[in-house]
Each structure stands twice: as structure tokens, then as C-alpha cells.
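Collaborator request, handled under Task 6.
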Amino acid sequence: MKKTKAALLCLTVVFAMLTAGCQSAAGGGNDGNANNNHNNIESEKPEMDLSKETVYTASKENVKLLGRTYFDEDILYCALSGTGAEFGFTGTQCSLTVKGDSNSSNAGAKDNHARIGIYLDGERVVDDMIDESEKTYEVFKSEEPRNVTVSVVKLSESPMSTVGIKEIKCVGGPIKPTENKDMLIEFVGDSITCGYGVDDPDKDHHFVTATEDVTKAYAYLTAKALDADYSMVSFSGYGIISGYTDNGNKVTAQTVPQYYAKLGYSWGTNGNFSPQETDWDFSAKPDLVVVNLGTNDDSYTQNDADKQAEYSEKYTEFLKLIREKNPDARILCILGVMGDRLYPFVEKAVDDFVQQTGDDNISSFKLTPQSARDGYSADWHPSVKTHERTAEKVAEEIRRLMK
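C-alpha cells returned to the collaborator:
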């Protein structure tokens, strides 16, 4: 009997100790123990070292990649409009070094270098042309640690220039990629998508990258209105079967489909990076692909029925390529801001795609042509006001389609 009682007493003590331990682990039980555990956790946190600068690369482990970018030999290359990187961190200093391409030192192309914007918590703090082989920018400096978000965006398009993000230097905690949005939209287009001349309200002026800003164009504004991530595949003067022509001759060199599976196209080189020779891996899966192509084709097709039919036929083929690369994405085909003569042939291309493939996850949407009351930008391109109006309409249509 004594042994049994002793055994029961031991079991009771052990049970009580286990119960107390479980309560402490769950945050209950003795408040003193819970506070001690909290203090121990706090004491294990490393203190922020504000005495030294840490150098980072713009790899996907450190930054959120914006658009179609390419990381090679510790440099993040950006060619297409809107490409770049975004990250957050807590600290007192941050600077960025970017690498210009072979055109950056060409004085004769001073208005057609790469244009970039650097943002601090959504506010543009740097707006510059990359006219040197390498440039470093101080993003911010503070006496006290700040929790900030930094973004680098290529404002101009790829044919004239590329840029590389070489390094990011920070004092404070480690940098981390910002969170992905719930939706990713890919925009495929021409100068309208690029924001051609949007910073030049004189319709008689012509193209320069210095007045091009993708963040003021309808595509970027649409993504912003929907709180969506974006990717742009756009080139000024490009079309489905022909680029812009003022003499009636077909410009086959300036067509988007041939570069759709690439990182873009550029006349210049940046180290070993050539966007037209670099495949895009399509690992980023857009929820929606918006195609806005036909404005430049129209300069070639005019009212020629055979040419318009060719445009529609090749458009359907391009839609099949888009579907091959993006099997689950909704496709939305739009046209009309700078003229809607080819819009019926966009509709036909979509209808033929559905009939030939049985895939009805696609639709078309006619845009309202620009008007004089909203003004024009360089070479009669859409004004800021027109881009804003267009973004409102496109965002509304996407909300309806995507529920």
C-alpha cells in the first residue's frame, strides 16, 4: 500500500509539472514565466547594425521582380517598359547603382537613353536618363531607422536602351521582396502602352525616350486601379503584321509576335545581355493578358480588305501563341484610342480563335477614341487625361470579366 501511494504521489507531481509546462508554452499559466519567455525571445533578436553598409544584388531572393527581367552575373537587366525591382527594409540609408548599355555614352542619343524612376514609399525621388556607363543614386538617408519601400522602374521602352541594376547598398536590416498582389496582368501593345510622348503636350513634337513614361500610360494606371501586378510587352511603332508606315510599304521588322517569347528588343547591348536573344521563361503566370495592337497595322492596311483580312488572320495566330504560353489566363483584346477602323477585325480574330480552338476564355473590348478636348501628346499620341480615361474604362471591364 505504501509503494502504491508513493507511486500515485509521483504521478500526480509529474502530471502537475507537465500541465504547468503546457500552459506556459501556450501563453497561459504563470504570467511571470510567460513574461520571462517573451523576454528571452526578445533578447535573442539580433540588434540592427547601423555602423556598416551591406551590399545586395537585385536577385529574386532580395527583391520583387517587376515585369520581364533577367538576372545574370549578379546584375538584374531591364529592357521593356515598366521593368524593375521593388523591396522593403528598415534602416537609415539606401543607394542604388545602375549599369548603362552601349548607347548610354553616345552623346548623339542624349534624349533617347534609358529613363528610370526610383521611388521611396511610392513617391518618385529620382527621375533620370542613364547617360553614363554606371550611375549611383542615393535614395534616402535618415538619422533614425525607417521602414521603407523602394522601387526602381524603367520608364522608357526597350528598342532604344536597356539598363541593369548592379547593386543595392543599405545600412540597417536586410532587404526583402515586397508581397505579390492578388492579380498579375500582362499588357501587350505598342506606343500607347509604352506612354509615348506623354510628358510632351505638343502634338507636333516627335519621339524621344526623355518624354516617355509608362507609369502615366493606361496599362500601368489600370494595374494600379486594380491593385494588380503588371508586366508590359510593348514597342512603339510595332503591330501584328506591320509596323507604322507612312508610304504604304509593309514594315515586317516591327511586329510584336516575333518578340513575344523574348525579353524584348534593343539596338544597344549591355554586357552579355541582348533582350532579343534571351528567352522569357513564362514562369510568372498572368491571370489576364490584355492585347492592344492594330494602331500601327492600320497605317498599312488602311481600307484594303485583303490587308485587313491578313491582319485578322495573323492576329488569331498570335492569340494561339499567347494561349500556348499562358494556358489559364483570360485574354482581353482592346483597340480604339488612336483610331478604331480595325476593331471589327479584332472581333473577327477573337471569334475565329474561339471557333478554331473551342477556347472561349477570351473577349474583345472597344476603346473610346481620343478627342481634342483632352489634348494630345507628341505625334498625336494620347494625353495624360486620355490615358486616365482609358484606364478607368479598361479597369471597369476587367472587374466585370474577372468578377
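The cover message to the collaborator said: "The CA atoms of residues 237 and 249 lie 14 Å apart. Confidence is low (pLDDT under 50) at residues 1-46. Please let us know whether this matches your experimental observations."
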